[in-house]
Amino acid sequence: MATLLLGAVLLIVQPHIVPSRPAVISKAETTSQSLQKELLKKTSLKNDFKGNVHSNGSCQQVPQTIIIGVRKGGTRALLEMLSLHPDIAAAESEIHFFDWEDHYENGLQWYINQMPFSYPHQITVEKTPAYFTSPKVPERVYNMNQSMKLLLIVRDPIP
């Protein structure tokens, strides 16, 4: 378990060395993508995607890391273990922003409002395992934050 936690922490704090590149997309998908980018632009307060600011200096912000995975794979356990660290601020529940259309249509500000207040030195983490199985999620996450860290939890199926 300690090895898993150490690996997760190292994955979160490692620098982004090789930039991700989006896949080649068709003209129809480009139109859809531009509409999504416009939605993100309209709903963001600033270019750094910060939301409500508390008087103590903490603020709500887009997470730097998202935990995804399979059902019963231990995503909640990982989130609970990571949230024990003082430099981690974890969302309380599964947000389902990128995979549920009604949540996604609420815009980026709605998503930010679901996040916990965190200090600038803290890493904000969200956990929604269903992002792993939704085909729309990768592009939406990439359009929002190209340097997003994803922690994928899988398990060996029980025969």
Automatic annotation (TrEMBL):
Membrane-crossing residue ranges in chain numbering: none
Q: Which residues form the Sulfotransferase domain?
A: 63-157
Task: Give the residue range of the signal peptide.
Answer: 1-20
Catalytic residues at 72
Residues holding 3'-phosphoadenylyl sulfate = 72-76, 155
What keywords are annotated for this sequence in UniProt? Answer: Glycoprotein, Signal, Transferase
What GO MF annotations does this protein's record show?
[heparan sulfate]-glucosamine 3-sulfotransferase activity
EC identifiers of the protein: 2.8.2.-
Question: Which is one Pfam family of this protein?
Answer: Sulfotransfer_1
Known InterPro entries for this protein? NST/OST, P-loop_NTPase, Sulfotransferase_dom
Enzyme class, broadest EC rank: transferase
Entry annotated with the keyword Glycoprotein: yes
* Family as reported in the entry's similarity comment: Belongs to the sulfotransferase 1 family.
- Which PANTHER family would you find in this protein's record? HEPARAN SULFATE GLUCOSAMINE 3-O-SULFOTRANSFERASE 1 (PTHR10605:SF16), HEPARAN SULFATE SULFOTRANSFERASE (PTHR10605)
Please identify the protein, giving its name as recorded. Answer: Sulfotransferase
* Native organism: Pelusios castaneus
